[in-house]
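Researcher: Quick test of sequence recovery. Tokens follow.
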């Protein structure tokens, strides 16, 4: 398994991965932007965000994006925000998505970026995602009605308690 930053050459395969992975969510009546994203929007997405992929035998298997507070689509809490997490349905349940997630958290968010915390959001009416994030150490911190089909639940994970305390004292 190879983990790396996405390139422009990956856009067509990335779009296919997102569309295929989010199809099951769309069938639940939840419409995330990643389910129907076009290649122009993907190019814009990778210009402002860090998009990581895992690949096996040169095929994209999973992806996870880090949206930055200064980017074109910042999260709501002034922290980097995770999104567009997806795994090719052909590899679902084999641990590839979790392996990428753990690598991004440890190697990028903690060791490289030295982040105090990170946030993410998901649909309140999704049957299992909120519990998965809680099991990964994320805690609910808010919600918003951004689209007509679902309420977005926001979660936060503290990655470095000392840095988090310093960041919170400066942001208040």
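Model:
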């Amino acid at each position: 398994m190879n983990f790396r930053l996405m390139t422009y050459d990956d856009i067509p395969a990335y779009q296919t991965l997102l569309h295929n992975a989010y199809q099951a969510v769309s069938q639940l009546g939840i419409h995330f932007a990643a389910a129907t994203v076009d290649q122009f929007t993907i190019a814009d997405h990778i210009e402002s965000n860090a998009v990581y992929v895992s690949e096996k035998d040169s095929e994209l298997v999973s992806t996870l994006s880090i949206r930055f507070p200064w980017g074109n689509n910042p999260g709501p809490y002034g922290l980097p925000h995770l999104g567009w997490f997806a795994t090719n349905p052909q590899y679902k349940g084999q641990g590839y998505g979790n392996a990428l997630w753990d690598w991004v958290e440890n190697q990028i968010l903690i060791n490289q970026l030295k982040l105090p915390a990170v946030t993410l959001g998901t649909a309140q009416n999704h049957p299992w995602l909120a519990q998965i994030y809680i099991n990964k150490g994320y805690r609910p911190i808010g919600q918003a009605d951004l689209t007509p089909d679902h309420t977005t639940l926001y979660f936060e994970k503290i990655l470095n308690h000392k840095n988090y305390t310093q960041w919170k004292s400066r942001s208040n």
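The first helix runs from residue 11 to 27.
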